[in-house]
Amino acid sequence: MKKRPGLNIDHEKLRENMKTVISWCDEAGIDVAGVFKITGGLASAALDYEACGAKWIASSRLEQLARAKAAGVSIPMLMIRVPMLSELDEMVKVCEYSLQSEFTTLKALDEAAIRAGKIHNVILMADLGDLREGFWELEELTEVAKYTEEVLTGLHLAGIGTNLGCYGSVIPTEAKMKQLAEYAEAVEAAIGRPLEIVSGGATSSLMPVFDGKMPAKINMLRIGGAAFTGALEETCRIYGRKELKQLHDDAITLDAEVIEVRTKPTHPVGELGVNAFGKKARYVDRGDRTRALLAIGGADFGDPDDILPQLPGAEVLGCSGDHTILDIEDCEENLKVGDVVRFKLHYSAILHLSSSENVTKYETGEIGCLL
Ligand SMILES: *Cc1c(COP(=O)(O)O)cnc(C)c1O
Known about the structure:
By secondary structure, the chain is of the alpha/beta class. The protein contains twelve helices and 16 strands. Strands 1, 10, 11, 12, 13, 14, 15 and 16 form an eight-stranded mixed beta sheet that branches. Strands 8-7-6-5-4-3-2-9 form an eight-stranded parallel beta sheet.
């Protein structure tokens, strides 16, 4: 019997998505770093990216990049979470490129690169308002760039970049992208040569690409989300973009098994305290309704709002760590114990499920070959 819950990864659809994203960027003169951290570092997803024309494989975790390299990915590895001092020696072995935002780290990285007999490529991050990583003052950015260029012989200053739309929810508007382009020009003036890379952000930075508003100077995007969940209703709504509809919304899906089917009240019976997560929850009394209990829970997918049942009329009512409750009163189909319910998944659910040891990955389609 197939082990459940199962995470289905359709490599044909995944590669079609990656190809589409890469062709959008290509038309705008932008190279793509394929970000695969959402899959928990599935090497096959990195191989797909490489086959589709990504120029770098990127992740926020060194272990994942090492795994992709061991699996035969041959394009350069880019570490996109600014690194810990404690991982620099490992990082220079695994990655050719990394994002950087601390002078202290750059100096230690220089020493690590020299120790390893390598030249490591760095992209200095500018924080343009999203308030996560990056230099805040242009002056500090240009000074550190100049120092890297002139003093840190183990490092090559490959470029600058920014990240938006993560902590601060800041939208990569044309103005923000122009600001990044101006920062790049200031750094180029300080070091007296052009930069190879100006990295304009992640999936959210596709929007200025769609609008034809991306400054020519921006020549790299680091894309993960779009290729995996770009076409989901909610993603399209958030970004308000019909272009994303060209992508598949089911390259990765979840199968969960029914373990109980029963008609019960919708309002809990008894004195109410807190739920499994220590929270006071609210319950709407809709009378008796039929529900299916599934053998998967918050421990696997995180937030129950991030899993979307592909069963007309079904609604996720909630979950505990290891159970999910599905209202199936309005479903045409009669579910029974042992049946499987399929879900489409939001970004955060894929991220959680990919790293849950209770979830078995089922990969279909050829991996890492041309379409
Ligand atoms: C995760 C991440 C990305 C990719 O983001 P998506 O929205 O999934 O495309 C790009 N850059 C950095 C620094 C990241 O941490």
